[in-house]
Amino acid sequence: MLAKGTIGKALERGRLSILGFAIAALAVTSPAHAQDDKMIPIAIPAQPNAIVLGTGPLPDATAPEVWHQQYGSLFARNVTVATLTPYLPDPAKANGTAVIVAPGGGFRTLSMENEGSDVAKALAARGVAAFVLKYRLNQTPQDMAEFDRSMTAMFANAARPTTRLKPEAAIANLAPQIADARAAFALVRKRAGEWRVDPSRIGMVGFSAGAMLTMATTLAGQDAKPAFIGLVYGSLEAVTVPADAPPMFAAIAADDPLFAGKGMGLIESWMTAKRPVEFHLYEQGGHGFGMYPKTTTSTNWFAAFASWMQMHGMLKPAA
């Protein structure tokens, strides 16, 4: 999530060409209330249900975790210790399915509400045990103005001619985040009985950088093995699909400034491998729409995702 001013300057100067797969995962947003685009520092909110994962502190981190408010939503930066926050359904409605929710933010910030808790609450309302993953992030300047300048500099670098990296190549730079995702899956399986979860029905949904992490977890997560995955406005670069690749749901807007118009290699990869895939291309929505209420049909992505889960039997009570 970037300040609107930074995004506007970048768009005007043509700085949205991609420098590698990781830089491409920046979470740009176009919410309904653009007047709330200013980043306002806030105290770290209470997180009484957050469970510290056992992946340790981010190596060589010096800047402490900070939070800010933007677009009426909450964001975290400089996360150095990963946590997992459960959002459990009413036991009477629990169906045994679980979803790890990975917010986006370019691995520099995390959209903890729009792409985190709001998604988890919507899943819990459908009987799904949801878990928001606050994964470790690349360090950024503490000062908001310096942070904004650092993002502008990143876009300047992105303007240089380069060849986009394949997702498999980008995975090498995501070791801490993949470790956090693996730890999240391990924890949910360990406490599956307590949380009324079927260990074989744990999926993952991610947004932008979170979608990148979801794909990385699928390709290189070793023991994570998501039962199904959802990629919302993530990269559509082609990948080498594992023989046991899970069913995949993908959604993106045609006017997405980062990932649209670059082909649909990911979808074709899944189809060629004869693995289940559902793809939604919305006419409008931009990037980062998440759970923000908008007048575009991209707002319907969650209903489509829930219907897709239902089609795969994930909203039926587990045996």
From TrEMBL:
InterPro entries: AB_hydrolase_fold, Dienelactn_hydro, GDXG_lipolytic_enzyme. Residues 87-317 form the Dienelactone hydrolase domain. Keywords: Hydrolase, Signal. One of its GO terms (molecular function) is hydrolase activity. It comes from the Bacteria. Coiled coil: none annotated. Residues 1-34 form the signal peptide. This is Esterase.
